[in-house]
Design goal:
Layout: E1 4-8, H1 17-30, E2 33-40, E3 61-64, E4 67-73, H2 78-81, H3 91-95, H4 99-106, E5 111-114, H5 117-134, E6 139-144, H6 158-172, E7 177-180, H7 183-192, E8 198-200, E9 221-228, H8 235-247, E10 252-259, E11 276-278, H9 287-291, E12 296-299, H10 308-311, H11 316-323, E13 328-330, H12 334-343, E14 346-348, H13 356-368, H14 370-388, H15 390-403
Parallel strand pairs: 1-2, 1-5, 2-4, 5-6, 6-7, 7-8, 9-10, 9-12, 10-11, 12-13, 13-14
Antiparallel strand pairs: 3-4
């Protein structure tokens, strides 16, 4: 019988691109039986933009695209999961007695795949209870989408960060394999647990099927941004500044694929109404179509000097641009800078906190050197085809599962 996998999720929406669209669907295709234990908020599952589903997915258990979905009310888990910071002696009675852990145990899976700090805590409880109550040794994966706690995050006092780190290292002793999203995060784990199996699976999409090389022979410049606008402090103002500066020099368009949370419209000044457009949140598989007219992709990471996660980031949008042969312009961040310098697929500003003027100058400079931009475009697509597409990452995922 095929091995059974249980995805254990504390915060992400059940249709999350990495968890559902890529990992779960790939494992299903490979022949695994896949269940996802996913959170509801106020009794509803929620979409990738944060909006609750009001008419869909009302059942607590259902099958979607071949994957079994088991929903639980996150509000009933919060207090128990917070006991991750309590002494370990109380974990069993107070921490693991919650719907997320108990529903996952009921699945009697062979491999449990967790995706956040708190779902990892639930995973430790699952592994222990499966051994104690079911007599079954199960495997535990921690899919670390980011570093939690971020060692530099000023939102948490140093004492709390140290406690979170101490508990993380304790939990890692029960993990069979760590998956993460960048080489620097992998290095961080190995610096603390040298013998821990760690693999990098980048947040890369499947290859865009209808890709056509870009020629950059027009005078128009279209800059693209994929993702949330309102979750980045000051980004809307920066986008407006870039558009004002660039539209004075060239026929300019700023295209947002995504937008504000909950589908709220982006408030654009009247004089830029024809220069800034937003698609709103679109189906994951249609993103390449929306990328067709974009010449340069923009990534602007916030607070790089106060966050290892920002400095180490290789976000979804970064690979989404490259997948469509779109050169990338980014502020100075370690892993993206190393990637761009290695593959010559974009431009890195020499500032961690770049302003609208810095981005506009870089964008206009690239626009004036169409030959260079075209070569960057070719390089972008080539590295995705050879190394980084989901088709390549999928092989890494299967190797991790085989190793278990």
């Amino acid at each position: 019988m095929a091995k059974k996998v249980c995805m254990v999720v504390a915060h992400h929406p059940f249709l999350d691109a990495r968890i559902f669209k890529k990992e779960a669907k790939s494992l299903l295709k490979k022949g695994y039986r896949v269940t996802m234990i996913v959170p509801r908020r106020n009794g509803r599952l929620f979409d990738i933009d944060g909006n609750p589903f009001t008419k869909q997915y009302r059942n607590k258990v259902f099958t979607y695209e071949g994957i079994k979905i088991v929903a639980y009310d996150y509000e009933k888990c919060e207090r128990a999961l917070s006991h991750v910071l309590s002494p370990e002696r109380v974990w069993g009675n107070q921490g693991f007695n919650n719907p997320l852990t108990q529903l996952a145990v009921q699945e009697k899976a062979d491999i449990y795949h967790t995706h956040e700090y708190l779902s990892l805590f639930a995973g430790v409880g699952i592994k222990r209870q499966m051994k104690q109550k079911k007599g079954k040794d199960v495997k535990l994966i921690y899919d670390s989408h980011e570093l939690t706690p971020d060692p530099l995050d000023p939102k948490y006092p140093e004492e709390r960060r140290n406690l979170l780190k101490q508990k993380l290292l304790t939990m890692l002793d029960e993990v069979d394999h760590v998956i993460t999203v960048s080489d620097s995060i992998k290095s961080w784990y190995l610096s603390h647990k040298p013998h821990l199996p760690v693999d990098v699976i980048y947040n890369a999409p499947p290859l865009a099927k209808d890709y056509k090389p870009k020629w950059y022979n027009a005078n128009k410049l279209t800059v693209g941004y994929e993702g949330n606008v309102d979750t980045q402090k000051g980004f809307k103002e920066k986008m407006i500044g870039i558009s004002e500066l660039c539209s004075e020099e060239v026929d300019f368009q700023f295209k947002v694929i995504g937008g504000n949370r909950y589908g709220l419209p982006i408030d654009i000044p009247d004089h830029l109404d024809r220069h800034i457009t937003s698609t709103g949140w679109v189906d994951y598989h249609t993103i390449p179509q929306h990328m067709n007219e974009i010449d340069i992709g923009l990534v602007d990471m916030e607070n790089v000097e106060q966050s290892l996660n920002q400095n180490y980031a290789l976000p979804n949008k970064f690979f989404s641009y490259l997948n469509n042969g779109i050169p990338v312009v980014v502020n100075k961040c370690k892993d993206m800078e190393l990637f761009i310098n290695r593959h010559h697929c974009g431009l890195v500003l020499n500032k961690t906190n770049a302003n609208a003027e810095d981005f506009a100058e870089a964008l206009l400079s690239l626009h004036q050197n169409k030959r260079k931009m075209q070569q960057m475009s070719r390089n972008s697509r080539l590295v995705m085809e050879k190394f980084y597409s989901w088709e390549n990452m999928e092989k890494r995922l299967f190797d991790v599962y085989r190793s278990l």
